[in-house]
Design brief:
single chain, alpha+beta, Aminopeptidase, three-stranded antiparallel β-sheet, 5 helices, 9 strands, about 25% helix, binds coenzyme A
Length: about 200
């Protein structure tokens, strides 16, 4: 294999457009015909729960091939209190570099940065086949449920501080910035180069 130089660092403002396009390329036709995630990324960056120090790119030999973004979130504990945690996503790897370990590298290093910034736990919806390799487990097995679908196997949590979720029982919902309007996303997509939407097997929508 060629020698490679990998850097994971905060995204600069002048790279916002590039990372939106990378996100669009990574998600295009994966979960639905076309995708919304590049618009979601734009919305997250202008919401109050955005943390620039956890808006990260993975550079390979000087070229950005991966991106992840974290957002402040909370678990509503059954006793009524709120427990601050974080969520993240979209996470994107340039399609030509998928399944070569870069997503895992970016995820794990970003989790370590989030931990150092004081985050105790993460909650997301995603595929356990990918996230299970990086200490995520199904939320409902631990007392943390997904408010929209309490029985969901795709709702995952991870402790960044050991014992942070011990004895915690509660519900998680994504922060409001994740609820993007598909019509707005469709409109925003017109500012990108045309790309063919395809209905493919395995899409969720
Ligand atoms: C999902 C994504 C971030 C993973 O990054 P990656 O660099 O491709 O993944 P890795 O090489 O680190 O994967 C490590 C392991 O995770 C699992 N995995 C990764 N992607 C998977 C997928 N789409 N489905 C099932 N398992 C997957 C596999 O076990 C893989 O090992 P293998 O390739 O030896 O089978 C990347 O493929 C991507 O950008 N996908 C499109 C956007 C997306 O789905 N984002 C996540 C939304 S929750």
């Amino acid at each position: 294999m060629d020698s490679e130089n990998i850097t994971i660092r905060p995204t600069q403002i002048d790279e916002y457009g590039f990372t939106e396009n990378l996100t669009r390329e990574a998600f295009w036709n994966v979960y639905r015909p076309g995708c919304l995630e590049h618009y979601l990324l734009r919305c997250i960056r202008s919401c109050g729960d955005y943390m620039p120090e956890l808006d990260l790119v993975l550079e390979r030999n000087g070229t950005i091939i991966g991106h992840i973004i974290y957002v402040r979130a909370e678990i509503e504990i059954d006793s009524g209190d709120k427990l601050p945690i974080m969520t993240f996503g979209p996470i994107s790897i340039d399609p030509q570099y998928k399944r070569q370990g870069y997503g895992t590298m970016l995820l794990r290093q970003s989790m370590e940065i989030a931990r150092r910034l004081g985050t105790g736990a993460l909650a997301i919806t995603g595929n356990i086949d990918f996230y299970g390799n990086s200490s995520f487990f199904v939320g409902k097995s631990s007392g943390i449920r997904y408010r929209d679908d309490p029985d969901a196997d795709y709702f995952l949590v991870a402790e960044l501080k050991k014992g942070f979720l011990d004895g915690v029982s509660g519900a998680f919902s994504e922060p409001p910035c994740y609820n993007v309007d598909p019509a707005d996303a469709e409109e925003y997509d017109k500012s990108f180069p045309p790309k063919q939407k395809l209905k493919l097997p395995g899409q969720l929508v």
